[in-house]
Design goal:
Strand content: under 5%
CATH topology of the largest domain: Tetracycline Repressor, domain 2
Distance between the termini: 52 Å
InterPro entries: Homeodomain-like_sf, HTH-type_TetR-like_transc_reg, HTH_TetR, TetR_C_Proteobacteria
Shape: elongated
Organism: Paracoccus halophilus
Keywords: DNA-binding, Transcription, Transcription regulation
Protein name: Transcriptional regulator, TetR family
CATH superfamily of the largest domain: Tetracycline Repressor, domain 2
Pfam family, one: TetR_C_7
């Protein structure tokens, strides 16, 4: 794919998200996305095939941004304790803010139609997130100050469960608003401290 095509796809996906935010998943049509992106309907169908594939591509693009940021938090911080807090903040920024809520609502709305968006979220967001947290848990274990008797994956799942839990679903249903910046900081610190109390032995 040429640089120009990559840039054009980014513009189309930005227009798709804008429409998704304004009218919701059910009313977001390929034709309306094409109009907003000032592209032909034929181009959208040639590149994406259908609406579900377009929004799946949007999710994948967002996941790559998430992965780069999380990777930097894991590898760029010499202190694994601080890295876990930074990672927690980033995870909340990518899962509990307005953009994430809109995408999750679209995935919920598509479940009865194709389920493709939920699969894209699982593959591109959750699996990437789990792999990077596993790597950080390995660093914590290697420091000699943490003991994960039931394995790194269980520790990862515990951290995700404590940090996010039912938050995404409650937000997707409108029961909880997007988290503000100070709420993200407070939650990340509280959960990181709790995780340390559970697993740190020195």
């Amino acid at each position: 794919m040429s640089e120009k095509q990559t840039e054009r796809r980014a513009q189309i996906e930005a227009a798709a998200f804008e429409l998704l935010e304004n009218v919701g998943y059910k009313k977001a049509s390929m034709l309306e996305i094409a109009k907003r992106a000032r592209a032909s309907n034929e181009t959208l169908y040639a590149w994406y095939g259908n609406k579900q594939a377009l929004f799946s591509s949007l999710i994948s693009s967002n996941a790559r941004i998430v992965e780069d940021s999380l990777q930097e938090a894991v590898s760029g911080n010499a202190n694994p304790d601080d890295a876990l807090f930074d990672l927690g903040k980033l995870l909340l920024e990518f899962t509990a803010t307005e953009k994430a809520i809109i995408i999750n609502r679209a995935a919920v709305a598509d479940v009865q139609e194709t389920g493709l968006l939920a699969a894209a979220v699982e593959k591109n967001a959750r699996q990437v997130m789990i792999g990077l947290i596993d790597a950080l848990m390995a660093k914590l274990a290697a420091s000699g100050r943490f003991r994960f008797d039931h394995g790194l994956r269980e520790a990862t799942e515990v951290f995700i469960g404590l940090l996010i839990g039912e938050l995404q679903m409650q937000q997707a249903l409108g029961a909880i608003p997007p988290l503000a910046s100070h709420e993200i900081d407070d939650r990340a610190k509280r959960i990181t401290d709790l995780f340390f109390r559970l697993y740190r032995f020195s």
